[in-house]
Amino acid sequence: MRLIPTLMSSAIHSQAIDKAFAKMTILGFDIERLKKDLKHGNTGGITTEELELVLNGTKKELKVWQYIAETIEKNN
User: Fold this and answer.
1) Are the C-beta atoms of residues 27 and 58 closer than 8 Å to each other?
2) Rounded CA gap, 74 and 70, in Å?
3) Is 27 a residue whose pLDDT tops 90?
4) CA atoms in the 13 A half-sphere facing the CB of 45
């Protein structure tokens, strides 16, 4: 297997970190929007319980991305 040159590896590492933090930022916005929707009863075509499930799933996804970002940072 061919090794990735150090410069390219560093660039990929930086891009991975950037993507992870961008995803975490978007998920944070999504969580705040979902909380606001729940508070105001804006459930769209789903029930409040279903929207709460979406919120909880989004919170879980944020934790996963936080773990991914932390792992990437540690592998520097």
Assistant:
1) yes
2) 6
3) yes
4) 0
